Amino acid sequence: MRRTLGPHALSLAFLAFFAIALAGQALAGWQDFNNEASAHDEESVSLGRYLVSSSFGQAVLENWQSEYLQFTLYIFATIWLIQKGSNESKKPGRAGRESAEQQLLGEHASPDSPRWAGVGGWRTALYSNSLLMVMGAIWIASWLAQSLAGRIVYNADQLDHQAPTVSWPTYVTTSDFWNRTLQNWQSEFLAVGSMVILSVYLRQRGSPESKPVGAPHSETASSG
Predict the structure, then answer these.
(1) DSSP string for residues in the chain
(2) Contact 44/34 with Cβ under 8 angstroms?
(3) How far apart are the C-alpha atoms of 90 and 92, rounded to whole Å?
(4) Which of 46, 81, 41, 89 is nearest to 200 (CA)?
(5) Contact at 8 Å (CB) between 138 and 130?
(6) Which of 36, 102, 175, 218 could pair with 98 in a Cys bridge, judged by C-beta atoms 3.0 to 4.6 Å apart?
(7) Which sequence spans correspond to the domains of the chain?
(8) How far is residue 220's CA from residue 88's CA, in Å, rounded to a whole number?
(9) Are 180 and 60 within 8 A, CB to CB?
């Protein structure tokens, strides 16, 4: 079992962390939802009902969309932008999409390259951008789902206060929506920017996210 799971331990560990955190959020959110309902003399709900509610969906999705936006932008930005000394950056002089030889495309593909890397045409073009496309699609889908769930929650609150409800196009222009959205975006951008610059000067022995401990600060795109 250890030999089977070992090569996939990193992804499996984070999937486990995700499941534990999501379960914890569900339980805490359910308790908070019912506490809020009790404070307003409203009926509490079961855990199952809470899990399919727009309140839970909004809470989950507003974080998912910001995470996928972070990685979508980071994947795109690191094609063109360089940070000298950072392990999170390509080496100076390699900005851009790079040559077919550097990317092992077409006739430069190795025997164990993915098939679509060497066939050429639209399949190679599609595969060459598949990571950015999929991450961007997940971001757009989760952003849209967040906005739909958020509108339901917003309108329910409006009805509680005998105020008019709003359409989806109107909701995505409200301060409620953008306050929730931007408070997640700014934290993601800060975290990525911090990682980029701190990796220039700080080290973590044994981590591929860090340069070797003894590497000079100016060394770029190396792993410890």
Answers:
(1) -HHHHGGGHHHHHHHHHHHHHHHHHHHHHHHHHHHHHHHTT-----HHHHHTSHHHHHHHHHHHHHHHHHHHHHHHHHHH---TT-TTSPPTT--SS--TTTTT-GGG--TTS-HHHHS-HHHHHHHHTHHHHHHHHHHHHHHHHHHHHHHHHHHHHHHHTT-----HHHHTTSHHHHHHHHHHHHHHHHHHHHHHHHHHH---TT-TTS--TTS-TT--S---
(2) yes
(3) 7
(4) 89
(5) no
(6) 102
(7) 1-47, 53-95+132-224
(8) 8
(9) no
Rounded distance between C-alpha atoms, residue 102 and residue 96, angstroms: 11
Residue that is written with structure tokens 């486990």 in the block:
16
Structure tokens at 182: 């931007």
The region that residue 109 occupies, defined by phi over 0 for left and psi between -120 and 50 for alpha, beta otherwise, is: beta
